[in-house]
Structure to design on (217 residues):
């Protein structure tokens, strides 16, 4: 059964691959699973047909027959459980990889998102510089802790896993802030992950989708 994802009709990131459909596309590419994408507009996201798939009116969603999922982390976990390649077979190692998935989404992503929101929406506030300093410190703390754990290892725990896929997806949201580059081992970790053919295919697909949406094709 070929699944269908939803993604922005025209992503506000202009095809930089920062929207959360990218992590699901990347997982599907790593797993060698074909998929279709249904683009949705901001208006359509808030209409009943999409709200039936995503109660919060967001992308991405995943549909395969009767299975309808929302939450990018849950979708990646579902795919990684279903097809071999993104979770180790050994039960303990598998649970550690799943723990890294949660760490990426629950411990590392929130301060990064909070910082991104401030940069986007709070720039004009008189307290912006002070707030940004505090938010930077929170992100920097997480990056230092992550770098300490990664050390010189290529991946977080053994081979590349869904934990790495989500962690790198989250780190990419720091974009050109230079915060990841301040840790050469983390920068190399991100470069290693994004050089993977699965990432490259997913990135190209979302960029092409953005360009189609932008050109109204
Ligand atoms: N926890 C959910 C998940 O992981 O699936 C969060 C999903 C989510 O935030 N979806 C966003 C969305 O649908 C798109 S990815 N937003 C529309 C809305 O809520 O009305 C977040 C995102 C958006 C834009 C950029 N960007 O421009 O760089 C990056 C990430």
């Amino acid at each position: 059964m070929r699944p269908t994802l939803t993604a922005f009709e025209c992503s506000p990131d202009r095809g930089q691959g920062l929207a959360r459909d990218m992590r699901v596309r990347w997982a599907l590419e790593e797993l060698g699973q074909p998929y279709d994408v249904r683009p949705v507009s901001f208006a359509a996201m808030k209409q009943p047909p999409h709200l039936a798939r995503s109660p919060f009116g967001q992308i991405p969603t995943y549909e395969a027959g009767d299975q309808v999922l929302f939450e990018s982390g849950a979708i990646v976990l579902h795919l990684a459980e279903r097809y071999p390649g993104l979770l180790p077979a050994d039960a303990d190692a598998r649970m550690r990889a799943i723990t890294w998935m949660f760490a990426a989404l629950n411990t590392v992503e929130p301060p990064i998102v909070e910082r991104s929101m401030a940069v986007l929406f709070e720039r004009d506030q008189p307290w912006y510089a002070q707030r940004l300093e505090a938010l930077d410190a929170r992100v920097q703390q997480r990056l230092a802790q992550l770098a300490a754990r990664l050390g010189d290892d290529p991946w977080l725990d053994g081979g590349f896993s869904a934990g790495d896929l989500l962690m790198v997806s989250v780190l990419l949201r720091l974009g050109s802030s230079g915060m990841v580059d301040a840790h050469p081992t983390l920068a190399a970790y991100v470069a290693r992950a994004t050089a993977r053919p699965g990432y490259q295919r997913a990135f190209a697909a979302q960029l092409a989708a953005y360009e189609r949406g932008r050109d109204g094709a």
In short: The chain has a mean pLDDT of 97. The domain at 4-85+198-209 is CATH 3.40.30.10 (Glutaredoxin). The two ends are 27 Å apart (CA to CA).
